[in-house]
Write a structure and sequence with these properties.
Largest sheet of chain B: 5 strands, antiparallel
Number of helices of chain B: 12
CATH class of the largest domain in chain B: Alpha Beta
Structural class of chain B: alpha+beta
Number of domains of chain B: 3
Strand content of chain A: 15-25%
Number of strands of chain B: 14
CATH class of the largest domain in chain A: Alpha Beta
Largest sheet of chain A: 5 strands, parallel
CATH topology of the largest domain in chain B: Beta-Lactamase
CATH superfamily of the largest domain in chain B: PAS domain
Strand content of chain B: 15-25%
CATH superfamily of the largest domain in chain A: Response regulator
Radius of gyration of chain B: 52 Å
Oligomer: heterodimer
CATH architecture of the largest domain in chain B: 2-Layer Sandwich
Number of helices of chain A: 8
Number of domains of chain A: 2
Strand order of the largest sheet of chain B: 4-3-7-6-5
Number of strands of chain A: 12
Low-confidence stretches of chain B: 483-493
Distance between the termini of chain A: 51 Å
CATH topology of the largest domain in chain A: Rossmann fold
Shape of chain B: rod-shaped
Mean pLDDT of chain A: 83
Largest interface: A-B, 34 and 38 residues
Order of helices and strands of chain B: HHEHEHEEHHEEEHHHEHEEHEEHEE
Distance between the termini of chain B: 28 Å
Mean pLDDT of chain B: 79
Structural class of chain A: alpha/beta
Order of helices and strands of chain A: EHEHEHEHEHEEEEHEHHEE
Chain lengths: 231, 533
């Protein structure tokens, strides 16, 4: 039995294209155009993963509300939101509403599929005990590559997939500068310098929330970023 | 701030208008001269009356002229005036005592009265030409100004030489006509040129024969004194009025000018050269025309700022609106590629994909500025060393642009400014990217130097100069002006320098682009204020 993915998207061409692509990857797809359609369907049966557009119809924030409602019903359900706006505010609002990750609409379909695969793997393995060889340890940082989860001083850091890959790229070679281009490739996303900067800013904030003295990610002006090893 | 280009200010204009009132003294002078003429006429008529009255008392007394002069002084001379007459001795049997008695009563007039006989000999004389003109005491201001007036107004003179032993030549014609039976009046200068004397002659009749004449004479001093006083009062009042008026007008004009100038300065400050309205205008609450002007200006500035905001938001909105159709095309192509396609079709899919990627890059650039503005809004500021950031950045550029040679000229050891190093690095990235794009020869120079209390970061490239028409607009959104040195598929929208401006204004810094003096290239400079220690 294939996994079931719900797509909530008001633009029919995009909705159908995404549905076709995901079906080709072997997923079972349920597509909805409005928030109400999606909600009533979710009451009967919850999907295994939800792909939600932020703006639905005339309501530019309908996706946030839907994400919150879905998260309330299924705390562990992976949710990805789609945004046409690359607005910092939208991203922060979407993640706070309970989404696990976000994608801008100009991401390619293979990229989307890879993201979905990774999220499924992460949720599948979340409950299983970590196997030793999959964990990278850098002082207080522990990265579980298989589960795509990060711990700082044994506390879980709630990173999105993109953020996890950025931290992973930096921490894999402590002391080495990673250019923004390299980080972009690692995160397999097409973004500009400004977006990498805001990802790094959000990563720093998440670590700083656990440890106010956190200062491992250093900006190397004109080049990129570096993970500072333990002193 | 631009220096005001005003040839004749409001103050000067109002003072110029005020010169109209300079005509008032001239009107006053004309009026007083008229008055003086009337007074002189009246004086002459009064003198004629006096002469007639005296002559009337002497008519038909033939004895009066028989033995005159009847009085003799000790030295045998006739008395010249009544004072001497008092000490003169009467010649016995002389009948002229009546003449003296009649004239004696006239010594208190302000006129000199003389009686001549037919041979024009002075038979008797009474009164004097010299009198102190009694006027009310002048006020303090008038006393102060009197020496000035005295320079151009004829002053009455009382210490002149009185010549009464003979008739002055000028008075003879009047005496002659009086002796012929015709009353006449006249004016003349005296032996002393400083005085003018008005005289009137009237015949004395004995029967139908003229036996003598009465001559009444008076100086014009009383009229002169009255005239001068009127002049002085008029001038003092006009002067005071003009002075107070000018001060009031100057004060009013100063107030008006300062309001207008403040409004002008505010209006100039309000727009930062990019149509963004930065401040409020002074005097928008005033309930007069200037207040109205300020309100009108404020309205215009608001519309300007709305338009500028609309223009800047336009790019971001456009990018947002285009993303959805772009996603449709992209996902369709992705799906198409999954199918088995003939090779010929695959070529077109790849081309479509290439165009799509370029379009996506353009949209990303367009929305970059908007995202940066959002990001800057919550970027914390802290003091940091600009020199360190610049040095690190230039190291990075050497590896990022291996085909270009970079020169770093640090003329300061430390330059601590307030802001964020990352943002400065982003700014420098844009300036260097711009320089590298247009450079036609090595090197690209990055310099940091002290600059008027701040610090100046400059990126210089050797390449085509800036077109003159675009000066000052380079840092606006969507403006790119120089012919690119190297072509390429990098989207070319001039947003880089706009992003640089955003980064600079985050540090309260100003950005300028100038041609090098010798025209060999362009220098883009950013002047940062130093952090407050």
């Amino acid at each position: 039995m294939g996994r079931r993915i719900a797509i909530v998207e008001d633009e029919p061409a995009i909705r159908d294209n995404y549905a076709d692509a995901l079906r080709r990857h072997g997923y079972e797809v349920a597509a909805y155009a409005t928030r109400d359609d999606a909600l009533s369907a979710f009451r009967t049966r919850l999907p295994d993963l939800a792909l939600i557009d932020i703006g639905l119809g005339d309501d530019p924030d309908a996706g946030f509300a839907l994400t919150r409602e879905l998260r309330a019903r299924a705390p562990a359900l992976p949710i990805i939101f789609l945004t046409a706006r690359e607005s910092e505010f939208d991203i922060v609002a979407g993640l706070r509403a309970g989404a696990d990750d976000y994608l801008t609409k100009d991401a390619s379909l293979p990229h989307l599929a890879a993201r979905i695969t990774a999220l499924f793997r992460r949720s599948d393995l979340a409950a299983a005990p970590p196997a030793g060889d999959d964990v990278i340890e850098r002082g207080a940082l522990a990265l579980d590559v298989k589960r795509m989860s990060a711990r700082w001083n044994a506390q879980r850091v709630d990173l999105t997939l993109t953020e996890f890959w950025i931290v992973h790229a930096l921490a894999r070679h402590p002391g080495h500068v990673q250019s923004r281009d390299q980080l972009m490739r690692e995160a397999s996303t097409v973004v500009d310098d400004g977006t990498i900067t805001s990802h790094v800013k959000r990563i720093r904030r998440k670590f700083a929330a656990l440890d106010p003295a956190f200062d491992r990610i250093a900006a190397v002006y004109g080049v990129g970023y570096r993970w500072d090893p333990d002193a | 701030m631009r220096a005001p280009r005003i040839a004749l200010g409001i103050r000067a204009q109002l003072l110029l208008v005020l010169t109209v009132f300079a005509a008032i003294p001239f009107l006053g002078v004309a009026y007083i001269r008229e008055l003086e003429g009337v007074l002189r006429d009246a004086q002459a008529r009064a003198l004629a009356g006096t002469a007639q009255a005296v002559a009337t008392a002497l008519h038909d007394r033939p004895r009066l002229f028989d033995a005159a002069p009847a009085w003799r002084l000790d030295n045998g001379a006739p008395p010249r005036d009544l004072v001497e007459a008092a000490v003169a001795t009467r010649v016995p049997g002389d009948p002229a005592s009546d003449l003296a008695a009649i004239l004696h009563g006239l010594t208190r007039t302000t006129a000199r009265i003389r009686v001549v006989d037919r041979t024009q000999r002075v038979v008797a004389s009474a009164g004097s030409l010299q009198h102190d003109v009694a006027l009310p005491a002048p006020g303090a201001v008038e006393r102060l100004l009197h020496p000035i007036y005295a320079r151009f107004l004829d002053q009455p003179v009382e210490d002149f030489r009185e010549d009464d032993t003979s008739l002055a030549p000028m008075v003879r014609s009047e005496v002659m006509s009086a002796l012929e039976g015709i009353a006449s009046t006249g004016r003349r200068g005296d032996a002393d040129p400083r005085v003018t004397i008005v005289s009137a002659a009237y015949p004395i009749w004995v029967g139908d024969r003229v036996e003598g004449a009465v001559i009444a004479e008076e100086t014009t001093n009383a009229v002169l004194a009255t005239r001068n006083r009127a002049f002085e009062r008029l001038f003092t009042i006009v002067l005071a009025t003009l002075l107070v008026g000018s001060l009031a007008v100057t004060a009013y004009a100063t107030w008006l000018t300062s309001r207008i100038r403040r409004l002008r300065d505010d209006a100039e400050r309000a727009t930062d050269g990019h149509g963004r309205v930065a401040g409020a205008l002074a005097g928008v609450d005033a309930r007069d025309e200037i207040g109205d002007l300020a309100r009108g200006l404020e309205g215009a500035l608001t519309r300007l700022s709305d338009y500028a905001a609309y223009q800047e938001a336009m790019a971001a909105r456009l990018s947002h609106e285009l993303r959805t159709p772009l996603a449709v095309v992209r996902s369709s192509l992705d799906n198409l590629r999954q199918d088995v396609l003939p090779d010929a079709a695959r070529v077109y899919v790849e081309r479509a994909q290439g165009g799509l990627d370029r379009l996506a890059r353009i949209l990303t650039r367009i929305s970059e500025a908007t995202r940066l503005e959002e990001a800057l809004a919550d970027t914390p500021r802290a003091p940091f060393d600009l020199a360190e950031v610049v040095a690190a950045c230039v190291d990075g550029y050497r590896s990022a642009y291996p085909t270009r040679r970079f020169e770093l000229a640090l003329r300061v050891d430390r330059a601590v400014i307030d802001g964020a190093g990352e943002v400065v690095a982003q700014l420098l990235d844009k300036l260097v990217a711009n320089a590298v794009e247009f450079a036609t020869a090595d090197p690209v120079t990055v310099s940091l130097e002290p600059w008027h209390g701040g610090v100046r970061l400059a990126v210089t490239d050797i390449g085509p100069p800036l077109p003159a028409t675009m000066q000052g607009r380079l840092f606006d959104s969507m403006v790119s002006v120089r012919a690119a040195g190297v072509g390429g598929d990098a989207p070319h929208l001039g947003l880089g320098l706009y992003v640089a401006r955003l980064c600079a204004s985050f540090h309260r810094a100003s950005v300028h682009a100038d041609d090098l003096a010798d025209g060999s290239g362009v220098v883009v400079s950013v002047v940062f204020p130093l952090a407050q220690a």
